[in-house]
Amino acid sequence: MKFIVSLFFLLFVVFYSSNAQNKSIKQEKLVRFELQSSELIGDSGDQISSPDYHSKVYWFPVNVPSTVLTGLVANRVYPDPYSGMNNMLIPDASDEFNKTYNLEQYSHIPNVGNPWKKPYWYRTSFKVPETDNGRHFQLIF
């Protein structure tokens, strides 16, 4: 009998705490982002994360989920790699492969033969209504 009461109490606590958490946490789905290579962005993460941030470099609009290459293809920086031999118009992550097949010439970053060596930034913003100030958010990408 003690086991059943303990189990019931445990289930009640788990159910109650999960419901209480769900009421205090607001989910926010984020889809639209901006994308750019850290090769071209010299600003720090703190600067880029600022709501007042303005870059001198163009950021590509992308919808997530998206890989960097998918985002660049969507912005027509590179052709669709699944069509014909278009994959041979996109630099590889391997410098040796790029040199062998002269793919460095297709890099979208000036004077950088391998555009994949440095990480890329994804950036977005969203507004918090005044009625939600102080509330916790679960961001869904």
Which key phrases capture this entry?
alpha+beta, three-stranded antiparallel β-sheet, 4 helices, disordered N terminus
First and last CA, distance: 46 Å
Overall, the morphology is elongated
Mean pLDDT: 88
Low-confidence stretches: 1-7, 9-14
Q: How many DSSP E strands?
A: 5
Q: Helix and strand succession? A: HEEHEHHEE
Please state roughly what percent of the residues sit in beta strands, choosing from under 5%, 5-15%, 15-25%, 25-35%, 35-45% or over 45%: 15-25%
Q: Can you summarize the main beta sheet?
A: 3 strands, antiparallel
Please, how many helices?
Answer: 4
Radius of gyration: 23 Å
Helical content (DSSP H or I, runs of 4+): 25-40%
**Class by alpha and beta content:** alpha+beta
Query: Strand order within the widest sheet?
Result: 3-2-4
Question: In a few lines, what is going on in this structure?
Answer:
With 141 residues, this protein is of the alpha+beta class. The chain is 28% helix and 17% strand.
